[in-house]
């Protein structure tokens, strides 16, 4: 058995990636699927789209590479987090569309929780905030219209896929995905009855929580029997793939959103700057914690330029357009399409563009869009530094995700942060994290420390912007943010 099959089920597409015995990606198959926006601030996926793209990409990548199931040692799964599904445990059919992590429909209920003071209980036990981002209030919303919960199961995307891949034999999740539900006590490692009771969620619906490298059953849907041995939410999988195993190490992933994680080791840090406490990974029953900053819109802003405004042909074109932008113009694009995440947590504010002139056009829009990712990352890093992250020359940010391939974007990121940015030799770090978990559990891949030693960087971007210019540009961003927030901060 020479391969590990990684399933990377994301927000806008599903990918299947084969990694060889040296942990190198050797074959990839990707399929996009439709996004549904039934109301302003609502985002949904069709559950069968999630499942069918997973099955199709896996079967295709296996067939296209000319191997069979007997060549695959294990399957690792990484997934969009917080997206919420409820399905009938007899038929496997979902009771409604999946409510995506970006969805904001439960904002009014979250506001109620804050008013009554329940958010402090949520934060202490789960590390999270009372926000529509997380799965708990989405599940409550579904159950209000779904009928008898006695026949229903809840899961994030990983659980949904595991249940279907094992043909209903396994209803499980891993600790990282559980930690994003707002229902899991990350201090005690159990589903929290007090929170479930307040949200009217029957605990029998919840999946069993296991380690990231664990036995999640096996599937015969790709030929012979293949064990599923690794599971982690996408941002935690990227943290693993970037080998951020030491406290103080940071990574930032640029996909549909942007998510920066700081390893805090055995200590669950309570942020004073509205960051999240979460589980970075759990191995051998022992959780490692992290501080996380979540940006809702990163790559999605380029997708909006392509599909919404139709001013660029494809995502890579944004870099060339940014390079051609008028240097005399300073535009700020605040992509708060579904509100703002950390450190603002304003679910009601919406996007805006500031600094427009008669000469502003597609090139300037593209530049402002890419710059918004750098500005938002600086928001997160400054909050992390205030909570104790490394600063100055000690600070190196490891980056991955689709936007990390853009030299222009990564150089601006280094410039606006005033810190080095490392891009790894294997950009598929999210899938690599899931593959390593499964391959390590199967005995094919090296131990945690050996894996960390094998990590290698391909490019280091060093800051090239004068400090005064950097700070002036960031001050303009902060002013733009202030103008869109619905409540002063």
Offer a few descriptive terms.
Nucleotidyltransferase, domain 5, 23% strand, seven-stranded mixed β-sheet, alpha+beta, 33% helix, six-stranded mixed β-sheet, single chain, 489 residues
Topology:
Elements lengths: L2 E7 L3 E7 L5 E8 L11 E2 L1 H18 L7 E8 L5 E4 L9 E2 L7 H9 L3 H8 L8 H9 L8 E4 L1 H9 L6 E3 H4 L5 E2 L4 E2 L1 H6 L9 E3 L7 E2 L6 E8 H8 L8 E5 L3 E8 L10 E8 L2 E10 L3 H9 L9 H7 L8 E3 L17 E3 L7 H25 L9 E5 L6 H11 L2 E5 L4 H14 L5 H7 L2 E5 L5 H18 L5
What does this structure look like?
It is a single chain. The chain has 489 residues and is α+β, with helices and mostly antiparallel strands. It has 2 domains: 3-234, ATPase, nucleotide binding domain (Nucleotidyltransferase, domain 5); 242-424 and 456-489, Nucleotidyltransferase, domain 5 (2-Layer Sandwich). Helix content is 33%, strand content 23%. The protein is built from 15 helices and 23 strands. The chain has helices at residues 47-64, 107-115, 119-126, 135-143, 157-165, 175-178, 193-198, 234-241, 299-307, 317-323, 362-386, 407-417, 429-442, 448-454, 467-484, and strands at residues 3-9, 13-19, 25-32, 44-45, 72-79, 85-88, 98-99, 152-155, 172-174, 184-185, 190-191, 208-210, 218-219, 226-233, 250-254, 258-265, 276-283, 286-295, 332-334, 352-354, 396-400, 420-424, 457-461. Strands 17-18-16-15-21-22-23 form a 7-stranded mixed beta sheet, with helices on both faces. The protein has a 6-stranded mixed beta sheet with strand order 3-2-1-5-14-13, with helices on both faces. It has a two-stranded antiparallel sheet with strand order 4-7. The protein is globular, with a radius of gyration of 21 Å. The N and C termini lie far apart (55 Å). The mean pLDDT is 92.
């Amino acid at each position: 058995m020479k391969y590990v099959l990684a399933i990377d089920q994301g927000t806008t597409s599903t990918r299947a990636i084969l990694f060889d015995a040296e942990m190198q990606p050797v074959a990839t198959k990707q399929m996009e699927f439709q996004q549904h926006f039934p109301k302003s601030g609502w985002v949904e996926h069709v559950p069968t789209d999630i499942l069918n793209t997973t099955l199709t990409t896996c079967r295709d990548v296996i067939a296209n590479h000319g191997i069979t199931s007997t060549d695959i040692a294990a399957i690792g799964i990484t997934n969009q987090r917080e997206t919420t599904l409820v399905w009938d445990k007899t038929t496997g059919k979902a009771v409604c569309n999946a409510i995506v992590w970006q969805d904001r429909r439960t904002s009014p209920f979250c506001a109620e929780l804050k008013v009554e003071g329940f958010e402090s209980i949520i934060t202490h036990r789960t590390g999270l905030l009372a926000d529509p981002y997380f799965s708990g209030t989405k599940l409550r919303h579904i159950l209000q219209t779904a009928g008898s919960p006695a026949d229903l199961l809840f899961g994030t995307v990983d659980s949904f896929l595991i249940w279907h891949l094992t043909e209903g034999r396994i209803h499980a999740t891993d600790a990282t995905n559980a930690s994003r539900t707002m229902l899991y006590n990350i201090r005690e490692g159990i589903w929290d009855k007090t929170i479930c009771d307040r949200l009217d969620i029957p605990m029998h619906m919840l999946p069993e929580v296991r380690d990231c490298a664990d036995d999640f059953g096996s599937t015969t849907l790709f030929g012979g029997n293949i064990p599923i041995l690794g599971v982690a939410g996408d941002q935690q999988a990227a943290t693993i793939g970037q080998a951020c195993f030491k406290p103080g190490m940071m990574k930032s992933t640029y996909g549909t959103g942007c998510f920066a994680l700081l390893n805090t080791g055995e200590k669950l840090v309570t942020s004073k700057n509205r960051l999240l406490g979460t589980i970075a990974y759990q191995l051998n029953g022992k959780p490692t914690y992290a501080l996380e900053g979540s940006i809702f819109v990163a790559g999605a802003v380029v997708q909006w330029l392509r599909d919404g405004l139709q001013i660029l042909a494809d995502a890579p074109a944004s870099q060339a357009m940014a390079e051609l932008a008028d240097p005399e113009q300073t535009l700020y694009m605040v992509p708060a399409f579904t509100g703002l995440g950390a450190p603002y947590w304003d679910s009601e504010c919406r996007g805006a563009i500031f600094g427009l002139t008669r000469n502003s056009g597609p090139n300037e829009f593209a530049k402002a869009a890419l710059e918004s990712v750098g500005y938002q990352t600086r928001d997160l890093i400054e909050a992390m530094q205030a909570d104790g992250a490394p600063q100055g020359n000690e600070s190196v940010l490891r980056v991955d995700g689709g936007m990390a391939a853009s030299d222009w974007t990564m150089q601006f990121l280094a410039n606006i942060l005033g810190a080095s940015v490392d891009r790894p030799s294997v950009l598929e770090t999210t899938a690599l994290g899931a593959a390593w978990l499964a391959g390590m559990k199967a005995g094919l891949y090296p131990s945690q420390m050996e894996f960390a030693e094998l990590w290698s960087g391909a490019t280091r971007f060093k800051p090239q912007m004068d400090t005064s210019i950097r700070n002036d540009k960031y001050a303009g961003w902060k002013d733009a943010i202030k103008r869109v927030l619905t409540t002063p901060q």
